[in-house]
Amino acid sequence: DTGVSQNPRHKITKRGQNVTFRCDPISEHNRLYWYRQTLGQGPEFLTYFQNEAQLEKSRLLSDRFSAERPKGSFSTLEIQRTEQGDSAMYLCASSLATGDYGYTFGSGTRLTVV
Amino acid sequence: GQQLNQSPQSMFIQEGEDVSMNCTSSSIFNTWLWYKQDPGEGPVLLIALYKAGELTSNGRLTAQFGITRKDSFLNISASIPSDVGIYFCAGTSGTYKYIFGTGTRLKVLA
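ok -> structure tokens follow
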């Protein structure tokens, strides 16, 4: 297993366009998380899945954001009608449900809205 | 969103020096994590702490879970150029949602 994989690594989009990011977690990890990181800040929690169930969403996740994990494996994060304030690094992480609770992060998707 | 306070915000040190940084919270946590992030990459887990007072090492890195459960400390001994990066603490009072610190930016002068 090569770890958590995120695609694309970089995305530049015009304001108002929709974008979708993909995350492939470590195969045996049943928990998956999305975080957002703006320049000079630490990651901020967006949402969490256990298997295919989305169990928590941050209030940072406005109605324009939606995340899915349809078969409990990969996940997608979609942002509709992007705004310049959405520019950030979007990080995906995964972990096991029991034992060591430390996350393994992917390399992130850097979104720039112009 | 809520972020933990990390100190110092940034530091320049000479190669070979020891480094200390800390992280404080207004809430009690039951798990602390320390991560390192290189530019353009995701954070990489360095050390996990699960019990108040716990002291855990990973090579030249040593981290401690504060006895008040509201703080944690990371020490790097004999720093080398590849230690450069941003160090983040993260804590949780539950089992899955971590709050991250604002980061300590470390630059090592050869």
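The longest strand of chain B covers residues 85-92.
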